[in-house]
Amino acid sequence: MFTSRFAITALFAFLAGANASCSACDNTLEVDGVALYTLANSTVETNGYTLCTYTNSKLGTKVTCEYSDAGIYEDGDDLCPHMARVHTHGC
After folding, report:
1. What are the residue boundaries of the structural domains of the chain, listed by start?
2. What's residue 17's pLDDT?
3. Which has the closest alpha carbon to 21: 41, 61, 50, 1?
4. Bridge-partner residues for 48, per DSSP?
5. Which residues of the chain have a pLDDT value below 50?
6. Which end of the chain offers a freer environment for a tag, N or C, measured as fewer CB atoms within 10 Å?
7. pLDDT value at position 91?
């Protein structure tokens, strides 16, 4: 009985992970239609949020954007887009 409960619990955990989604950072960040910032780092945090860090080496500036697993802007700089693409698997 214990083994079947464990197997069912493990299956549910696997299926929940397989159906998880996360935000995907764009390769560039545009300002007034011009790509000024390049993606330097993208991290999926333990809470499921995605942290996107962009840099502009000529200006020496950095922009950080945080998105929920549904692609909704949660926190960051004013230049961040309000929505991000969402991956439904492979996060």
Report:
1. 21-87
2. 45
3. 50
4. none
5. 1-2, 4-18
6. N
7. 72
Counting runs of H as helices and runs of E as strands, what totals does the chain give?
1, 7
Only one residue has tokens 């000529």, namely 58
Verdict on whether the full-model pTM lies above 0.85: no
Of the CA atoms within 13 Å of residue 86, those in its CB half-sphere come to 16
Q: What are phi and psi of 70, to 5 degrees?
A: -95, 5
In the sheet with 34-44, reading across from the earlier edge strand, the strands are 28-31, 34-44, 50-56, 61-67, 73-76
- Check the CA dihedral 42-23-89-8 and report its sign: positive
| The pLDDT of residue 11 | 37
Strand 50-56, strand 22-24: pairing: unpaired
DSSP 46: T
